[in-house]
Amino acid sequence: MSVLSLQFAPGLPWLLIALLAALATVSLAVALWRGLSGWALRAVAALVLLAALCGPSLQQEERDPLTDILLVLEDDSPSQSLSDRPAQNRLAREDVLAQIAARPSLDAVWRRLSEFGPEGEVEGTRMMTALKKAMAELPANRLAGVVLITDGVVHDLQNAPGLPVPVHAMISGRVSDWDRRVSVTEAPAFAILGEQIELRLKIETLGNTPSGLPPAFLSVSHDGTPLADIPVTDGADMVMSLTLEHAGRNLIHVTLPVEEGELTGRNNEVVIELNGVRDRLQVLLISGTPHPGTRTWRNLLKSDSAVDLVHFTILRPPEKQDGVPVSELSLIAFPTQELFIDKIDEFDLIIFDRYQLRGILPGGYLASVRDYVKRGGAVLIAAGPSLASADSIARTGLADILPATPTGRLFEEPYKPVVTDDGQRHPVTRALSQHAPDGGWGPWMRHVEVVPMRGHVILSAEDDAPLLMVDRSDEGRVALLASDHAWLWARGHQGGGPQLELLRRLAHWLMREPELEEEALSAVATDEGLLIRRNTMLTELPEVTVTAPGGARIPVFLSQGAPGVFEAQFTTEATGLFHVEQGELSTVVVRGAATSVEFSNPLARGDLLKPVLAASRGAALRIEDGLPSLRSVRAGQPASGRGWLGYTPREAYVTTAIHLRPLAPPWAMLFLAAFALVFAWLWEGRRGAARWGEPAN
After folding, report:
1. DSSP 340
2. What percent of the chain has pLDDT over 70?
3. Predicted model pTM
């Protein structure tokens, strides 16, 4: 194809040519004012000279036309995997590409959303961002239109680019789709243990809800323990009351059963993470024979402002005869009935420090302590010599919950406590040696010989004699320290030892701190995926099963990193709610959001894209209504109609050759200008055409 155009190559600067044109105009004006008859010929001469100075040329271009480009951007985000959307997408893509292939002047560029990758930690379908990137890779002068194959679930409309060509959307999904979702409308970040809190949930049914749905119930579990189901009220806030029983991380898992025909179940569950805190720690310290360790216990417990300590101590046993009148021994009677019967369940921990039977506490009170443990209480027994005597606490109702039985032998010789094999794996004594002073732990001087009956021995004396034992009794927990010399560590005797760290861990284990559970499965989200951790007293473990948000079940093998601690890094880029199971233990963890924005409302819709499409005269058509045809339309004309989508040809080309030819030879233009000037002079000299041929005076 050849195209002619007029080009100029001035021999002088344009400003100088403009000044000459102005001078010629003034000269012509003077000629007119004086009435010179040759002004027209002078004007012709001026125009010819100015034209010659402009260097006019005829340019002939040889152009090869370029094909137009139609960009087809396909949404392959997770929501496009629902129902039969993949089949609809494939059908629409193949039809559009086939129509483009049938048009010689039109080329197709097909891209997938996933090719452009996510931006940082941003979630959702970033369709407009991908469109910008795809357009940046194409020549703007050839882009004739854009077709988006999507379900309309787009989350970055604010990034929509401005386009001079039509943008259309082919919407997958069906009008009959429906879905249910559960969301948390209100939940506290923390809760005080033992106090009731309220969580507010909302159940919504979206889309074309079928009739005759059966009543639904929310399944709720707290740290894997099922709670009572809650009947569903659609569209209304639902209040769930809950009382936390242990401090630290509490996971509330709420699940809405997936009904048949529901679009997805990935928005049918949420996880609420609450931090349980203790308002006040109630500790009952029962001291028997006074000794230096009593002050150590009091200093330890009173140093924490969050601890409410009730100290029951026997300062004067009944058998002591010193002649002091009974009326002067006490100002008030100690409330034993209230402490050991009426309000015993209010205590978080009961400590027996060198207690022995002296007839002060009746057997019924100690039996009440035993029942308190079986109901979920915690007891720590720091035994003195009395444990091996006839007045031993092991001869009371507490014997049913003790992890060991005394033999009656008492050893009084120096020894250093040793962490046993079980102690290396138990969270109470695991890595306790790291807190040892230089030169190792200091010695203790006394311990009672006991025979373990149940539980775990985590500290031992000489010859592997049990020293510290822990056990679970029904719902409660018990610890037995077969020595009353732990206070030597606190005094720094021969270097001392980690008495504070040991007793702190022991007390927190007794009160069910999740970080100190010896049998626990946990998982936390990381940048790479999930870090799965299992605390156990076992030496070998089966594999862990991870259920991904999409429903895939992946086995994961754990490796032992430290005694009693097995870990594994599960690598994934998926976000959502993960279930982790191993035998009877299970937990849930949220990476990103439990219900990603992608599935918060997965119904296919075209209304979100309408503002973007309308700006370019585009349209959104559902694939289920039929596949549209493509039409060529002029710029500014309607670009869509019933059953068709339009694109605007850009008529782009590439220039293959350019030929320049002067409009006239320079000598011809100079001759023409000279002839006009000479003829004007002759004309004026003869005073006009009427006097042409007359002799001059």
Report:
1. I
2. 92
3. 0.66
